Structure formats: structure tokens, C-alpha cells
Amino acid sequence: MRIVFAASECVPYAKTGGLADIMGALPAAVARLGHEVTMYLPLYRQTQKRLQGGPTSRRVAIQSLTIPFENYSRFVTVLDGGKHEGVQHYFLECPELFDRESLYGTDAGEYSDNAERYGLYCRAVIESAKQLGVPDIFHVHDWQAGLLPVMLRTIYYYDPLMKHVPVVMTIHNAGYQGLFPSSVIPQLLLPWDTFTMDKLEFYNQVNFLKGGIVYADVITTVSRTYAEEIQTPEFGFGLDDILRKRSADLHGILDGVDYNHWNPATDPKIAAHYTPDRLDGKAACRKDLLHAFNLDHCKASTPVLGMVSRAATQKGFDFVAEIIDQLAAEDIYLVVLAMGEPYYENFLRSIAERYPQKIAVKIVYDETLAHKVEAGSDIFLMPSRYEPCGLNQIYSLKYGTVPVVRATGGLEDTIGDYNPATGSGTGFKFYGTNPQDFWLAIQRALTLFTDKAAWRQLMLTGMARNFSWDKPAADYVRLYEDTVRSKS
Ligand code: ADP
Ligand code: GLC
């Protein structure tokens, strides 16, 4: 099969969160199953830097695509990024829209022309595919690619090349929907009849994610539990109704992780390698982590708790705020790597100032440090309010770092609660929204940590779990095949 992926992030070219990790791995896993896979990405400033750092010279695949808007046109050059791990990459160059400091916005807010940026992106993917290879199916991700199925089924309705091509849409996070004023309908040359309650309209605004959900042939999300949760008012962010209407076409496929990049046996970013048979390298990683966070004075017997996270409401920092004084009263160290909303960044700075001997925080986006936290911590905290899949808890398992999680979405599906009677489970879970339940889960972890043999066994159980892409990639391929079959 020929599959075209459309997403706004992909490692190593551009990343703000887990979507980029998925795009760096799923297309390659699908290609390994013998399929022809192509991926289109915007050429951001950070992508340009990555490309310049590598051996790729500028190879033009299409000199100029004309992308029409209401009163003007923009022009996109398609660059051939070559084949990596079996996946053909193309970069869409439109410097006026993508050559910017960040992907979606700055501290001052989201870029005001994001509708135009991602509207152009979707149309440029369709136009490029017409020239460079019409796929059997499109697989599009999140709101940034949400207009692709909308355009395909409206603007391209009569296009002999495109009219039969089905679309799978994956929701990685229903909390981010791409909301814009209704003026973007004429600006992007979309027909006005798409602006109704059962299509793109959402409380008088245009909702890109909703458009994708309505017009895609099949919808997936990134864990089984989240697929159920988003059909409820609590987790659907106003889209639960439309998702319930499409529940027959909504599937939960758990993300995999890329063990080529996240494996303590081979990870080049950590101080020492270790495996389930030879765990001693983890002590060196711990020392190196504490050094990186200026906590050199730490005792070896004290547990190190780690967090790596976007600083956002989703990630449950309010739970941390509620229990931080109880936590700081214990014999622990806490290291936090986070970046995002200023409110949570300030909160994190404030706790490091309050407890400088025990808590260290880095407000930065740093890949190497993220790996060091996974490897050097004993316990990983992830009390997310909601979590579509979550990758860090899965990385933690592989690194022998025991996760403490709130039982929601992918956290519910990937972590088994430790049962002292049977020794089953891979971490500590809490349910509901009472911060004291989070605190109890941490206490259970801290208590078990003092029992070295039981703790070691718990680490080994987690390290043995396998979340590789083999199974989810095969599940997606089955879904592509079923979708193409039912469409023809
Ligand atoms: P989300 O996509 O909701 O942010 P995930 O758990 O799926 O959550 O993925 C987060 C990814 O982003 C992981 O690869 C994690 O290591 C990375 N990450 C998050 N914050 C940072 C940071 N401050 N520095 C480096 N990497 C980070
Ligand atoms: C989103 C979600 C996260 C998920 C990631 C990759 O960013 O917040 O839970 O792991 O996408 O699917």
C-alpha cells in the first residue's frame, strides 16, 4: 500500500511533544511491514537547522506550488528530504509562514495566522501528492492536519485523482482543536456549507479538529481508554457529542515507543549503559543527573523522583502543588524538566526556591536532559489530569524508573498497579481527583523503595514490558486495508 502521513511535528526535524516521537517511529514501522510511506512536514526554522546540520543538500522536488487564498496566492517549494528508515520525507517551504522562532506561537500567544499556516499546509500536501504520488490512503494527525479530509471531500470533491482516497485521522490530544474566527472559511476558500454545527462550526468558531473528525473515514486515538473517555463530557472538550456520533468508526490504538532512541542499553545521551542483567550503570546515571541539576550533595540512599513534561494544565501540576510540602518533608530529591505555560513554569521555580536542598527545576526544552531524568531517577511522577497515551511513563519502565501515575487514558492502559501480595504490576496508580490519593501512591512507592529486593523486582518487571511498534503498526495497516476495502 501507499500511505501518506501528514503531521505538524516529527523527530528529529521539529518537536514540541509526543506527536513528534510518534511521527519519527510509526511511519518507519509501517514501512518495515513492506508498505510505501511518504511523510510531508512544514519546513520550520528549526527543521532547516537540522537539515543544514546533516549531509542533505537542497534537492527540489517541486519548484512552485500555487496555493490560492481568497484575495491572493502563496507559493510553496517542495524539498526532497530523501528516504530515512524506508520513509520518504518531503518538506514544504513557505518562509513567510514557517520560518519562525517556534512552531505554533510564542509566550505572547499563538501565531495569529495559524489557520492560514495549517490551511496552506493541508492543501500543499494534497497538491504535492497529486504530483509526487497519489496514496491509497492518507493518515493525518491532530488539528494541524484536520483540514486535509475537509478539503478532500469539498474542494477536491470532483478531482479524479483524489476523490476516492480515504483518510484516517488520529487524535493525539482532544484538548487542542485549532479554533479560529469564521472569516477563515472564505479566506481558505472553503464552502460556507461546511460552517454548520454538524461540520466545522463550534460555538460560532471554526474548529479544525472537528472538521477532521467529521470528514475522515476512520478516526483513531492513542489508547483504548482515551477512545472511551473522549466520548464523555469530562474529556471530550466539547467534541464528545460528535465523537459519540462516530463511535462506530473510532478506534483506540496504543502508541508504541522507539526503543532505538529510548533504551538504557544503548542510549548515547546517558552517563552509563545498563540492562536488566547488569543494573549497576543506573547508579552512574543517577550521579550524573544530580550533577546536571546541581544536587551534588545528595546521599545515595535517598530516592530521586523525576518529572519530564510540558508545563500545561493537562499534566496535573496542580496535584503536585497540593502535596509538595508533604513530599518535601520526606527524605527525597525531586528533579523537574519542564517548559510551557508561564503559570506552571513560575510555580515550578517557586518550589525549587522554597526547597533548594531537595528540589531542582530546569525550565528548558532539552532532549539530553530528558534522557538523563529517565535514566537517573528512581521514581517518575505523572499525575496527568488526562493523558491520551503518554510516552514518558513507558520510557520510564524501560529505564527501570518506577512510574507513579493517575489512572487515566494511556496511563491506565500501560501501567499496572503494584500488588504487594502477588508482586504483580509495574508502578503505582491513583484514581480520581483527590490530591491525597496522589500522595498515598507516592508514599506506597517510597515505602517499597526501602525494600531493596522488592524494588529491584518491580524495576525488572517494568523493564521486561514491551511496547515496541510492531503490534500497533500492524494494527494500523489492518485498519488502512479495511478502510480502503470498504471505500472501494
Ligand atoms: P505530550 O505529547 O502530551 O507532551 P508525551 O508523554 O506523549 O506527552 O510526550 C512528551 C515528549 O516530549 C517526550 O518525548 C518527552 O521526553 C518530551 N519532553 C517533554 N518536555 C520536555 C522538555 N522540557 N525537554 C525535553 N523533552 C521534553
Ligand atoms: C499527545 C498526548 C500524549 C500522547 C502523544 C502522542 O501529545 O498528549 O498523551 O502520548 O500525543 O500520541
Topology overview:
Layout: E1 2-6, H1 18-32, E2 36-42, H2 45-53, E3 60-68, E4 73-84, E5 87-93, H3 95-98, E6 105-106, E7 109-110, H4 114-132, E8 137-141, H5 147-153, E9 167-171, E10 179-180, H6 184-187, E11 201-202, E12 205-207, H7 208-215, E13 218-221, H8 224-229, H9 233-236, H10 240-245, E14 250-252, H11 281-292, E15 304-311, H12 317-328, E16 333-340, H13 342-354, E17 359-363, H14 367-376, E18 379-382, H15 392-398, E19 402-406, H16 409-414, E20 428-430, H17 435-449, H18 452-464, H19 470-487
Helix pairs in contact: 1-19, 4-5, 5-7, 11-14, 12-17
The structure holds adenosine-5'-diphosphate and alpha-D-glucopyranose.
The site of alpha-D-glucopyranose has 14 residues, from helix 1.
Descriptors:
9-stranded mixed beta sheet; 488 residues; 20 strands; 39% helix; globular; alpha/beta; binds alpha-D-glucopyranose
